[in-house]
Amino acid sequence: MPNKSQTLVWAVVWAWVATTVSTGCPKICECKWRDGREMVVCQKANFIDVPRGLESSTQVLDLRHNNLRILPRDSFAYSGLLNLQKLWLNFCNIIYNKISKIEERALRVLGNLEILNVAGNRITFLNFTELRPLQVLRVIGIDDNPWYCDCRLQQLSHWMRERKLTASTPPSCSHPSWLYGGDWQALDDKHFLCGPHTMAVAPRILATDRDNVTLMCRVESEVKVIITWLVDETPIHNTNKIHRYKVKQSGDPDRQLYVSNFTILGVVREDQGIYRCLAENRAGTIVTDIMLQVSHEVAEVRSENVEQLFTRRGLLGAVSIVLFLVFFTCSVMYYRAKDLSLQISEDDILGTTKLTKNLHEKLG
Q1: Residues with Cβ < 8 Å from 357, sequence gap 6 or more?
Q2: Which CATH architecture has domain 197-298?
Q3: Which of 88, 113, 334, 338 is most buried, judged by most C-beta within 10 A?
Q4: For the residues of 63-119, what is the DSSP string, one character each?
Q5: Does the CA dihedral 84-86-91-93 come out positive or negative?
């Protein structure tokens, strides 16, 4: 039979275990209240995974100085930490922590999150709509990322200003080059520009030998743009000695639309190849390729097609004429027959009238 001291020890142990299980606090962690928040501290616990079974009321989770190394996709999926406001993962030897983007709707259940720190990653763009669920967010760390400061980042800048949310350390631009190193929180709207967008009206052109051919390039740009045609990586201008090349450009700045036409007079086989339309504004450069093919066979095919077209049209015209004549003949015959029947009817009516009159006279 156990003595009283053993019974007391076992009672204390079971009470401690029951308390630990009921509160959802891992035995090597410290669960406490600090600054009015329920906090779970698990520093230097040699964890290789996020602990499970924590109380859903946990607001601060400190996992610093563990050996997590990786965070699987479902690390927090079944944790039930709906009230989590702050998460510490520093010094956990995490090796895939070079986040290039925040996945769509990844933050949708963190409505009570107050501090978000994604500094020191590879994020170039962040859609501000992904931050909308963070209604009580008050601190954001987004520095030390290669931000691409173009027109897409403008909405994030607006959102942070409306929320009066300032990054703890100023985030700087890595692109474009003319904004490199600048704090993008301090930029005006006029600085958030996108590079031009180009489109070949016809990306592949098949031309006949000695024809005049025009290559067309459509460009959209928010600001002034320079359009250059390249032939074998050599820029082409109207001042070139090759008078067979003509460049003409037109634009509508109000619609942010520009069109450049590159005409080659009297193309020959040697002209076929790749022609490049290069558009550049102060936010970036983009190139669109157009392929030109020159062949004698095109003329033969065109001639054959024209002959076939005329043959088909001639046959169709002949059939149409015959049908018209048949229709016209039938119409004439129909109306003649109708007129004849009307005339016969009138003669019959007249004869009947005379006969009736004679009968009346004879009958007195």
Answers
A1: none
A2: Sandwich (2.60)
A3: 113
A4: -TT-------TTTTTTS--TT--EEE-TTS--SS-----PPTTTTTT-TT--EEE--
A5: positive
First to last CA, the chain: 159
Q: pLDDT tens digits, residue range 52-65?
A: 888 888 999 999 99
Q: Please choose, from the candidates 101, 115, 195, 188, the residue with its C-alpha nearest in 3D space to the C-alpha of residue 147.
A: 101
- Check: CB of residue 171 under 8 Å from CB of residue 183: yes
Burial of 100 (0-12, 13-18, 19+ CB in 10 A): exposed
Q: Which pTM value belongs to this model? A: 0.51
Measured between alpha carbons, how far is 213 from 208 in angstroms, rounded to an integer? 9
In DSSP notation, 255-314 reads GTEEEEEEEESS--GGG-EEEEEEEEETTEEEEEEEEEEEESHHHHHHHHHHHHHHHHHH
| Bridge partners, 291 (sequence order) | 204, 274
**How confident is the model over 270-317, as pLDDT tens digits?**
999 999 999 998 888 899 999 999 987 654 445 445 456 556 666 677
Contact yes or no for 282/195 (Cβ under 8 A): no
Which residue is it, tokens 């590879």? 122
Contact between 87 and 63 under an 8 Å Cβ cutoff? The reply is yes
Q: Which two tokens stand for residue 143?
A: 């520095």
Measured distance CA(212)–CA(244) in Å, rounded: 9
Domain coordinates of the chain in residue numbers?
A: 197-298
CB count, 10 Å around CB of 137?
20
